[in-house]
UniProtKB/TrEMBL annotation:
EC number(s) reported in the record: 2.1.1.198
Gene3D superfamilies: Cobalt-precorrin-4 Transmethylase, Domain 1 (3.40.1010.10), Methyltransferase, Cobalt-precorrin-4 Transmethylase, Domain 2 (3.30.950.10)
Catalytic reaction annotation: cytidine(1402) in 16S rRNA + S-adenosyl-L-methionine = 2'-O-methylcytidine(1402) in 16S rRNA + S-adenosyl-L-homocysteine + H(+)
Free-text function comment from the UniProt entry: Catalyzes the 2'-O-methylation of the ribose of cytidine 1402 (C1402) in 16S rRNA.
GO molecular function annotation: rRNA (cytosine-2'-O-)-methyltransferase activity
Boundaries of every Tetrapyrrole methylase domain copy: 13-213
Location(s) in or outside the cell: Cytoplasm
Name used for this protein in its record: Ribosomal RNA small subunit methyltransferase I
Length: 290
């Protein structure tokens, strides 16, 4: 167990600073003050952060911290922090470490017992959620789904029975394909919301069923940063799963006819149904449960 006292004067501090997701006026007063006073700013992209610093007349030094250089940068930053320096970490937009780089530095600081202090502020997922009209509690933040169709559909199958509102980030170029996959895995009448260009002048909410949004995207390409929110499992899906679910043995046999080895098929069906492998194994081999 480790206990953190965030404001001990004798140690350096890592501040996690949220930055605006579009509108620069969403930057907090406290965030500006800490960026201005920091000995160093660790930025996902120094060019992007420099625009923010110029807007608020901040002259602090920057160094990049991203997925390609964090192994090199972290020892440098730890050395400065141990010397009592203050480092402010930012991503290009929103909260550091939420679908952005930064978690590795946080973990390293915690291991070295260096204070990690996060500020509240802009985050696209929750900003979209509270205006979506979908149930805010409970909700489940997923972030970016896999890009390949099979991998994406497998992830969606793992989420299909969740009752929480689901939050995703998605590229506008992939959004149509993602919603098409959702209509195949989820019930097409689930309510969903596309939130586009949050806090910017072209902010837009598209609310409807998955089927309606799919039809809209087939006719109307969209641009800009997107959040996609989908309601949790609906009653029609529960009824369908109870009345149309194939017996486990039939599911296994279908995979075997598709070329799976028996043990691999059993393992896959267990995963799809949220069961232990032994349960499916026993059912397939007509063995009594002990």
């Amino acid at each position: 167990m480790k206990k953190q006292k965030s404001y001990k004067d004798e140690t350096g501090k890592l501040y996690l600073i949220p930055t605006p997701i579009g509108n620069l006026e969403d930057m907090s007063v406290r965030g500006v003050k800490i960026l201005d006073a920091a000995d160093l700013i660790a930025s996902e992209d120094t060019r992007n952060t420099q625009k923010l610093l110029n807007h608020f007349d901040i002259a602090a030094e920057q160094k990049s911290l991203h997925e390609h250089n964090y192994k090199q940068r972290i020892p440098e930053f730890l050395k400065l922090l141990k010397q009592g320096k203050t480092i402010a970490q930012v991503s290009d937009a929103g909260m550091p470490s939420i679908s952005d780089p930064g978690q590795e530095l946080v973990t390293a600081c915690i291991q070295e017992e260096i204070a990690v202090i996060s500020l509240p502020g802009p985050t696209a997922g929750l900003t979209a959620l509270i205006a979506s009209g979908l149930t805010a509690q409970p909700h489940y933040f997923y972030g970016f789904l896999p890009r390949k169709k099979n991998e994406q559909q497998n992830e969606l199958k793992n989420l299909v029975t969740m009752k929480a509102t689901l939050l995703f980030y998605e590229s506008p170029n992939r959004l149509k394909n993602t919603i098409t996959n959702m209509t195949e895995v989820f019930h097409e009448q689930r309510q969903a919301v596309i939130c586009r260009e949050l806090t910017k002048i072209h902010e837009e909410y598209l609310r409807g069923t998955l089927s309606e949004l799919k039809e809209y995207l087939n006719e109307t390409p969209i641009k800009g940063e997107c959040c996609l929110l989908v309601e949790g499992q609906i009653e029609q899906e529960k009824e369908n799963s109870q009345t149309l679910q194939e017996p486990l043995k039939v599911q296994v046999e279908r995979l075997i006819t598709e070329g799976f080895k028996p043990n691999t098929a059993i393992k896959e069906i267990a995963k799809q149904n949220g069961l232990k492998k032994q349960v499916v194994y026993n059912d397939y081999h007509d063995l009594k449960q002990s």
